[in-house]
Amino acid sequence: MTYSMKVKEEICRLNINRMEALSELTAIIRYDALIKPNSITLTFESGAIAKRVYKDIKSIFNLSAHITVRNQKRFRAKQVYILEIKEHATTVLERLHIMKGQKMLKMNRTDLDTREEMVAFVRGAFLVTGSLNDPATSKYHLEYVFDNPKDAESFNKLLHEMKFDTKVLTRNSKYMVYLKSAEEISDMIRMFGTPNSLFYFEDVRIYRDHKNMVNRLNNCEIANQEKTLQAGLKQVKDIEYLQEHDLTDLLDEKTRIVMEYRLKYPESSYQELATIIGMETGYTIGKSGINHHFIKIKNLRKMHEEQANS
Question: How large is the angle between the packed helices 182-192 and 195-244, nearest 10 degrees?
Answer without folding.
Answer: 170
